[in-house]
Write the structure tokens for this entry.
Amino acid sequence: MTHHDPAHIRAARSQAISVASAVSLYGLSFGALAVISGFSVWQTVVLSLFMFSGASQFAFVGVMASGGLAAGWAAVASAGLLGARNGLYSLRMSPIVGPGWLKRLAAAQLTVDESTAVGSGQPSLAGNKTGFWWTAILLYTGWNAMTLVGALLGDVLGDVRTWGLDAAAAAAFLGLLWPRLNRGEPIAVGLGAGVLTLLLVPVLPAGVPIVVVAAVTIAVALYRHRVSPERPPREEVS
Amino acid sequence: MDPLWMFVLAASLSVFLIKLLGYLLPQKLLEGPAISRVAGLVTVALLASLVASQTLGEGSGIGVDARIPAVAVAGVLLWLRAPFIVVIIVAAAVAALLRFLGWMP
């Protein structure tokens, strides 16, 4: 577990530590935003413990904050749709995690952008295992700890707008989006989705536009795939 | 049951079940390029939609306020490869400062 390990294991571990510590800090802003949006500290902590997928958590809280309880199912749908990519990550990590149902159950909860990226980017199977589990466990611990700290801070902070936390939420989504805008196709889809959202927001109830945008994107992507079935780069993991 | 709790648990469960599904389904599903292409683009579209609605949405309409310059600064910082947490803190600070000075709502 220390300096006796081969270099590629140590490399995977240090990558895991740097990714997990950087991303965990971001749990602070989730915790504060959720509490300020009207969730209790307990609900905020439960979201990080059980949902554990940053983009889905922010989307859920954001849609609920803008639409209230009436937007509840739209918020659930947004979280689920944004979590859909985790299912693909699970398929990819499945052979790396290996057999054992308890281990696979734990791995399922911990399969997110970061653990998949580190856990599938190593030169050996042992490196992949190390990268996945170290990132997963460190990030789960750090993300939840930082969520609690943020939630307690948010309780003290009060108004979202005074501290610019509404802008922080928008910037957070931009930060999640940024690394995915690496080719022409996602850039075009991103612009189209943004414009469509702004057209729909004034005419549809809160939370519904994002679900429509998802449906339109699925239709457009399937159509484009039939017209030009290019194989996308496998690394859509950020 | 408090409806807010119900939504919290329903959303958490749905996100977990999607993750679990990948460990239950046969591996060869990943081979279909259509699925991974669509999933990648849907993620991009949803995040872009959230950027737009969180930057400009106000109640049930569109509103222009201090969030716009804040998000623009965030974009520049991301382009300069600034760390995530720095981007978020600076964006919040820009909006808070513009409001404190009374320059923008």
The longest helix of chain A spans residues 125-157. The radius of gyration of chain A is 19 Å. Chain A touches chain B through 105 residues (CB under 8 Å). Residues 234-238 of chain A have pLDDT under 50 and may be disordered.
